[in-house]
Amino acid sequence: MFQQFGKWGFIAPRDIGLFLRSARTDTTLADLRTTVGQQAAFDTVYASGDPWASSDPRYFYQRRKYEVLAGLVPDRRFSRALDLGCGHGNLARKLAAKADSVLGVDIAGVAMEQAAITHADVPNLRFEQGDALDLPARYDGQFDLITIADMIYYLPPPIEDAWLKDLATSVARLLSPGGILLLANHYVYARDKDSRMSRRIHDAFSWSPSLRVVSQHRRPFYLVSVLAG
Ligand SMILES: C[S@@+](CC[C@H](N)C(=O)[O-])C[C@H]1O[C@@H](n2cnc3c(N)ncnc32)[C@H](O)[C@@H]1O
Question: How many C-beta atoms surround the C-beta of residue 64 within 10 A?
Fold first, then answer.
């Protein structure tokens, strides 16, 4: 039994379990980050399984979300794609049908090991441990497609607007000329705390002189911006 949200998509009652698991993970992470630090905190939650239920076949929502995000990528062939903060690599896997090569990068080395095993059957997809805030200079200008789904609000606080604008500039630097950046963040309604944060993220990236807004989309329960470098 699914509930339909207009023409946008569906959520099944059992997907509530996914939101509960995500909320539990976020509480655990908030504690861990102050005690063991950013990288070890994410490694720890991945070591105990699938922290945001992104690969759990019982949940329809996440599967559908990766399909929708991949569907919002402009319809052209890409050369090199990057999924930043890729977690278990489910979106990166979708990109592999659209690009000659795809690199998934995440701060959690544990997640990268798990993703490499899960997606070993996809020859043009590979994973590397890396920090979005400290990427190697060899990435600059290398990607004609970048996706960032639900990662930015996990970066160390405080996440101020000026800082987000600098982040947008450094992400834009990774794009080759005319490359596409797809940004997706949780969005429920305009006034709750998480949606306000998502809106600030998208506004900062849209503001960036290095990026041009191609399109924006609202879906239950996320916001997507497609930008061009
Ligand atoms: C909610 S998960 C989203 C994963 C994936 N994008 C998806 O949609 O399934 C957030 C991810 O951001 C990653 N992350 C957090 N801080 C990061 C950083 N500084 N650099 C790279 N990845 C980071 C976490 O390890 C985690 O995998």
Answer: 19
pLDDT of 109-141, one tens digit each? 999 999 999 999 999 999 999 999 999 999 999
Range of the domain at 8: 3-228
- Of 54, 69, 91, 151, the residue with max ligand 1 atoms within 8 A of its CB, to mutate for a pocket test, comes to 151
Q: How many domains, the chain?
A: 1
Name the residue of 106, 186, 223 whose CB sits within 8 Å of the most ligand 1 atoms, as the mutation to test its pocket.
106
Q: Is the CB of 87 under 6 A from ligand 1?
A: yes
pTM: 0.94
User: Three-class SS of residue 91?
Assistant: helix
For residue range 61-77, what is the model confidence (pLDDT) as tens digits? 888 999 999 999 999 99
95: domain CATH number is: 3.40.50.150
